[in-house]
């Protein structure tokens, strides 16, 4: 009986060890495949103080001005959230703001800002604060990078190609926090930039602080094709 008990006990122990090793192996694979690449994409130290800021437009209802965010920012956010949730367990998805409603103190925290300076006051302030260190400027309906102007294309009233930009850097208002800015020539450019960040932003060859300009074709139904990089530069913020 003792030998049987010992054999059973040995089998149980072996099974327990195998289960632990399998669990550890799964955890390691998850860290290597999901969490670490996602953290390289964003470079935030954590997400507890991260605020997501969308642009602010207004619709006149006839009785009041209703603030809304653009469709491009909503579509871009749907691409970005899975990567954020893989990277950070402390992500608070309730901290999504329209730019006109962001409390001033939040400007000094970690920020993910979607949309350009025309309708996003937060983007405008951050881009202005970083102007001397950025290789591109926005204005005149163009994205100008080192003197070369880039813009999207439209045919028969429909956008067929669009450009977008990504800025990943230290928050210029607080050197202990970080920002990611995503915008475009039009709404589809913002989606293209978000797609590039989630698909290629974890590349080990990329600097932590970087500016990237991408372009993508836009299908008739609004689908944004895989973006390609037009320009890229490390930043010294």
Largest sheet: 8 strands, mixed
Q: How much strand content do the residues show?
A: 25-35%
Residue-averaged pLDDT, rounded?
87
Low-confidence stretches: 23-33
| Count of DSSP strands | 13
Structure, described:
With 237 residues, the chain is α+β, with helices and mostly antiparallel strands. Helix content is 34%, strand content 31%. It contains four helices and 13 strands. The protein has helices spanning 2-42, 71-87, 121-129, 187-200; strands at residues 51-54, 57-60, 65-68, 96-98, 111-114, 136-139, 142-145, 148-150, 153-155, 158-171, 174-184, 210-217, 228-234. The strands form three sheets. Strands 1, 4, 5, 9, 10, 11, 12 and 13 form an eight-stranded mixed β-sheet that branches. It has a three-stranded antiparallel β-sheet with strand order 6-7-8, with no helix packed on it. A hairpin with a 2-residue loop joins strand 9 and strand 10 (158-171). The protein is globular and about 85 Å long. Mean pLDDT is 87; it is low at 23-33.
Quick summary:
Helix content is 34%, strand content 31%. It is α+β, with helices and mostly antiparallel strands and 237 residues long.
SSE arrangement:
Blueprint (H helix, E strand, L loop, with lengths): L1 H41 L8 E4 L2 E4 L4 E4 L2 H17 L8 E3 L12 E4 L6 H9 L6 E4 L2 E4 L2 E3 L2 E3 L2 E14 L2 E11 L2 H14 L9 E8 L10 E7 L3
Parallel strand pairs: 1-4, 1-5, 5-11
Antiparallel strand pairs: 2-3, 6-7, 7-8, 9-10, 10-11, 10-12, 12-13
């Amino acid at each position: 009986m003792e030998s049987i008990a010992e054999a059973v006990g040995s089998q149980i122990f072996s099974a327990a060890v195998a289960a632990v090793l399998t669990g550890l192996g799964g955890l390691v694979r998850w860290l290597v495949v999901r969490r670490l690449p996602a953290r390289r994409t964003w470079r935030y130290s954590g997400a507890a103080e991260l605020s997501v800021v969308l642009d602010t437009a207004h619709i006149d209802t006839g009785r009041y001005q209703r603030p809304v965010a653009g469709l491009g920012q909503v579509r871009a956010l749907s691409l970005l959230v899975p990567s954020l949730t893989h990277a950070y367990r402390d992500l608070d998805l309730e901290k999504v703001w329209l730019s006109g409603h962001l409390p001033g103190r939040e400007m000094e925290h970690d920020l993910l800002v979607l949309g350009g300076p025309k309708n996003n006051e937060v983007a405008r302030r951050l881009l202005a604060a970083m102007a001397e260190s950025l290789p591109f400027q926005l204005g005149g309906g163009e994205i100008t990078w080192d003197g070369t102007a880039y813009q999207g294309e439209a045919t028969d009233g429909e956008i067929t190609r669009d450009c977008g930009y990504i800025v990943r850097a230290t928050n210029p208002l607080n050197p202990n926090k970080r920002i990611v800015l995503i915008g475009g020539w039009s709404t589809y450019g913002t989606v293209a930039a978000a797609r590039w960040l989630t698909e290629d932003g974890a590349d080990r060859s990329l600097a932590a602080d970087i500016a990237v300009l991408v372009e993508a074709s836009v299908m008739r139904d609004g689908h944004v094709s895989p973006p390609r990089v037009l320009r890229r530069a490390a930043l010294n913020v």
